[in-house]
Design goal:
Blueprint lengths: L1 H28 L15 H13 L3 H4 L3 E2 L6 E2 L10 E3 L4 E4 L5 H4 L4 H10 L14 H4 L4 H12 L12 E2 L3 H4 L18 H11 L2 H5 L19 E2 L6 E2 L16 H9 L11 H4 L7 H4 L4 H11 L17
Antiparallel strand pairs: 1-2, 3-4, 4-5, 6-7
Helix pairs in contact: 2-7, 9-14, 11-14
C-alpha cells in the first residue's frame, strides 16, 4: 500500500508539473504577434473625415467605447461619455470585460504602432491579449488605410478622464484568450464599382456577422448558419434576438427591395431622444441602427447587394420574446 501511495503521489506530481509547463508555455509563447511597428499616421483632413465616418457609422468604435442609454431607442450614446468606455459585457461563465477608454486621456501616450497592433492584432501595449469582443480579427482584414484613418480620428476625440475596471476571465478562458491574437493580414478595399465585393468588405467592417451569425460554445460560427440570426442579447434589460438577414423570402429579408433596406436605416438618421415606455423597451434593439443610419446610401446599397448573394436559410426568429 505504501508503494501504491508513492506511485499515486508521483503521478499527481507529474500531472502538476506537466500542467505548470503547459501554462508556462502559453505565457512564454503567446500571444504570438509581432512587435508594434514604428511609424506615424498623418492626420490629414481627408483621413480624419474617413476615420470619423468609419468609427461613428460603420465599425462602431465610438458606440462600443461609449456608454449607451437603453431608455432610448437603439441605446443612444450618452454624448458626455464619447470614447470614455466603461460599459460592462458579461460573458457568462467565461468572465466579465469592460469597454476601455479610447480617448487621448487613456491612449495619448501610446504610439501609432501600439494602437495599430491592439486594434488589428489584438495585443495591448503591455503585451496583454485582448478579448475578441474587441473585433480585431475583422479589423486586421480591413484595408490598412481604413484602419489608419480610424486611429487618426480616435486621436482627435476629446480627452475624458475615467478609470475602467479590469476584466476578469475564468479558467480556461484566461489561457485560451492568449492563443487568439494573430498578426494583421490587411486586405485592399475593393472598388465600389465591384459592388458585391465592396458590399462584403463593408458588411465585414460593420461587424454584421458578429450579431447575426450564431456561434458554438467555443465562439466559432455554426457551419451553414451565416447571418441566420437568433443570437440573444440582454443589454436592454429584456431578451432581444438578432434577425435573419439571409435572402430567405419568408423568414429573412428576401422579400425586401433595395430601397426598403436602405430606408430601414435612413429612417433613423435623425434619432428620437424620447424616453421609451415599458412596452417600447421590451421591443428595443441592441443594434445601433442610429449609428448605421449615417452610412451613405451607396454603402448600404452595396451591403444589400452582398447579402442578396448569401444562401437563403429558413430560420424564423422571435426577436422580442419578452414583448407584451
Amino acid at each position: 500500500m505504501r508503494i501504491l501511495g508513492k506511485i499515486i503521489l508521483v503521478l499527481l506530481l507529474l500531472v502538476v508539473v506537466v500542467a505548470a509547463c503547459g501554462v508556462g508555455y502559453l505565457y512564454l509563447v503567446y500571444p504570438n504577434v509581432p512587435a508594434a511597428p514604428a511609424f506615424k499616421i498623418e492626420p490629414s483632413p481627408e483621413r480624419l473625415a474617413r476615420g470619423q465616418y468609419l468609427s461613428d457609422h460603420v465599425v462602431g468604435c465610438t458606440t462600443c467605447h461609449s456608454q449607451r442609454d437603453w431608455t432610448r431607442y437603439s441605446g443612444l450614446i450618452k454624448p458626455e461619455t464619447l470614447g470614455r468606455g466603461g460599459d460592462k459585457f458579461d460573458l457568462g461563465g467565461a468572465g466579465v470585460v469592460y469597454a476601455k477608454n479610447i480617448t487621448p486621456a487613456a491612449i495619448g501616450s501610446w504610439t501609432d504602432g501600439e494602437l495599430l497592433r491592439a486594434v488589428a492584432a489584438g495585443v495591448s501595449r503591455d503585451g496583454t491579449p485582448l478579448f475578441p469582443l474587441m473585433p480585431y480579427p475583422h479589423f486586421g482584414q480591413m484595408s490598412e488605410d481604413d484602419v489608419h484613418a480610424v486611429l487618426a480620428y480616435i486621436r482627435s476625440l476629446k480627452a475624458i478622464e475615467g478609470a475602467v475596471p479590469d476584466r476578469t476571465l475564468a479558467f480556461p478562458m484566461n489561457l485560451i484568450v492568449r492563443t487568439i491574437p494573430t498578426a494583421a493580414a490587411f486586405q485592399p478595399r475593393p472598388s465600389p464599382d465591384s459592388k458585391v465585393a465592396y458590399g462584403k468588405y463593408m458588411t465585414d467592417a460593420a461587424l454584421c456577422s458578429d450579431c447575426h451569425t450564431p456561434i458554438d460554445d467555443r465562439g466559432q460560427p455554426l457551419p451553414g448558419r451565416d447571418f441566420v440570426g437568433g443570437m440573444e442579447f440582454i443589454e436592454t434589460g429584456y431578451r432581444v434576438r438578432s434577425a435573419n438577414i439571409t435572402p430567405d423570402a419568408d423568414t429573412g429579408i428576401g422579400s425586401w427591395t433595395e430601397q426598403q433596406f436602405i430606408d430601414r436605416f435612413k429612417g433613423f438618421e435623425t434619432p428620437s431622444n424620447a424616453e421609451l415606455g415599458d412596452a417600447e423597451r421590451r421591443q428595443n434593439t441592441v443594434m445601433p441602427i442610429t449609428m448605421y443610419a449615417g452610412m451613405t446610401r451607396e454603402d448600404l446599397s452595396a451591403i444589400y447587394a452582398y447579402l442578396r448573394t448569401l444562401k437563403p436559410v429558413v430560420n424564423r426568429v422571435n426577436k422580442f420574446p419578452d414583448a407584451k
